[in-house]
Specification:
With 469 residues, the protein is an all-alpha fold. It has 27 helices and no strands. α19 runs antiparallel to α20 (342-354) and α20 runs parallel beside α22 (376-388).
Length: 469
Amino acid sequence: MRPMNHLRNDPAVNQLVAAYEAQFGRGEEVFFEEKAYLKIIDFYEKDFQLDKALEVAGYAITHHTYSSECYSRKAELLIGLGKAEEALSVLEEARLFAPSEPDIDLLQAEALIVLQRPAEAHAILEEMKLEADSELLSDILLVEALVYEAEGQQERMFFTLKAAIEADLSNQEALERFGACIDLSRKYEESILFHEGLLEQDAYLAQAWYNLGQAHNYLGNYEEAIQAYEYAYLADENMEEAFRECAGLCFELRQYYKALGCYEELLENFETDSDLYISIGQCYFHLKKYKSALAFYTRALQFDPLNDELYFYMGECYAMEEEWITAIHFFEKAIQIEEGREDYHAALGHAYYYFDEWEKADACYRQAVTINPDDSQYWVKWAVFLLDTGRATEALNVLEEGDIDDDSAELMYCRTACLFAAGKRQEACYWLGEALLENFDGHRLLFTILPDLEQDPDVLSLISTYSLE
């Protein structure tokens, strides 16, 4: 997911952009102060409208001919669009007005990287290092790391970015690049040690906390990851990605209330989208607050009315409330949009079963296994349905038809239940023994499928025997 444009929450910038668009739309002469143009360019760039940003940069240069910064911003945008030759031409014009401006040299090196001329980029950067202070050195090392990245030298990129950060802890772009570099190099243990060292020097480095959280998350240190993400957004309340990562991890760990806290912050302070509403809905669903879940799924539909998963989630909510007619409606809507999802057909079959439409339920389960014959859970769901409707022999035939190369305990316990129900006790006891050996703790599933077996002396005797092994 790409980051949201935080400038959309800035009223002053929004007014500038609205004024620019209104004048441009009327075909009027567009004129703003230099700083205003730069803010409008930033807005469009953060909104991923690079062509629009480039258009504004052109007007900025027209009206502020001697501003090297306007030229530099245009060159930066051209580099982002892969138009490096054009960028070099613009930088040559900028150099006429600011011959000693280091940003021009840095952008020239970046353009040369795009043009696959790394030796020339290295030469520029080496010369710049001779008289650089720590802040400029950090920027030089950042661009040098990009050269190494283009050359495929991941190791040198890693250590150069470390040096860039050590030269200037406030170099946000270097910290961001370093986070991406860690993902590429998988140096998560080193990342943890490095970022902990940085945070001892400055505890308010939000990006360092975020990078630390990412490393802990990858290594499975989930509570440490959550804590790092929390410190990240405490250090920078605009750090949307920290809220999202923290919320996502809390959700995976089934810490739904904690996840909701993060999602509510996102809802209040950042641009909303379909994914955000769905995530909140999923939290409420797992908390068994189905009406709240439905409210957020409905909001998500306004953004994405053809999202099959949304209709499926809504169907699940109504199924949990045993409102079968409505559940069937939403499951069918999901299937109309995406008919190749076996879980949708199985859920529809489940709803039809409880709505006493057994023939339709049977057809749905068959469709589910037709779509994905290799997943045992759908054969099991179909067999349990047949068993529940008094068709034990048909249930056994379904399990045989599946011919699944899967020794999962779920399949074994299901086969055992079907055999007991069909009166094949000797064979049933054999499969029960196999299932108990495979997964003893899973034997409660047998009683879920066929509750009467909880009082069966042969079953209880086998369970007791295997519990002593």
